[in-house]
Amino acid sequence: xxxxxxxxxxxxxxxxxxxxxxxxxxxxxxxxxxxxxxxxxxxxxxxxxxxxxxxxxxxxxxxxxxxxxxxxxxxxxxxxxxxxxxxxxxxxxxxxxxxxxxxxxxxxxxxxxx
Amino acid sequence: xxxxxxxxxxxxxxxxxxxxxxxxxxxxxxxxxxxxxxxxxxxxxxxxxxxxxxxxxxxxxxxxxxxxxxxxxxxxxxxxxxxxxxxxxxxxxxxxxxxxxxxxxxxxxxxxxx
Lengths: 114, 114
Known about the structure:
- The complex is a heterodimer of chains A (114) and B (114).
- With 114 residues, chain A is mostly beta strands.
- Chain A is 0% helix and 50% strand.
- In chain A, a hairpin with a 3-residue loop joins β4 and β5 (42-51).
- Chain B contains no helices and 12 strands.
- Chain B is globular and about 45 Å long.
- Chain B has strands at residues 3-5, 10-14, 19-21, 24-26, 32-38, 44-50, 56-58, 64-68, 73-78, 87-94, 102-104, 108-113.
- Helix content of chain B is 0%, strand content 52%.
- In chain B, the strands form 3 sheets. In chain B, strands 2, 5, 6, 10, 11 and 12 form a 6-stranded mixed β-sheet that branches. In chain B, strands 3-9-8-7 form a 4-stranded antiparallel β-sheet, with no helix packed on it. In chain B, strands 1-4 form a two-stranded antiparallel ribbon.
- With 114 residues, chain B is mostly beta strands.
- The A-B interface holds A 4, 31, 33, 35, 40-45, 48, 58-59, 90, 92, 97-100, 102-103, 105-108 and B 4, 6, 9, 32, 36, 41-46, 49, 51, 90, 94-96, 99-102, 104-107.
């Protein structure tokens, strides 16, 4: 089954404790991205990757890092989480990153930073 | 820069009633337009999309949307709502040039009364 998986689904952490949210897709997609969803703001893109070792900032990249060492994986790293990063995070992928393409989303990771 | 407005934060309809969710966009030309649905605890799923041609597009689950260039709108409709349609709905815009990321609206939460 074609899918995007994220782990963990739920995470509670404390300020300053580094964490990583994993994302994996099995569709051989070139393009992957991370979004955060906040009430009243919709989804905002954090980072995206056009291919292995090619990443770039989205609209709200501050406080986040990403890496793309393998085509299928695109982890999101919070080096020093802060309470304002409490949010619902989605990983998404598409074939080549064209804006006309369907985005396939993971189930989301709900993060609470105390 | 492209933007999307969903003026209704929350809508409640009775099961079997018709539904229209509003979406207005701002973009210099005709953009790519999408509607995604997010069921509780799930990621986003594509309902339908518009690129060009016929301005009335059909999607999954009995949904349709109409692109109206003169009104910069892309409203989502369904003639008869089912209880399983309760979810959050996001309109999104993709630019035909430049930045490839989608711009999402803030979402409309649909509640269905029995």
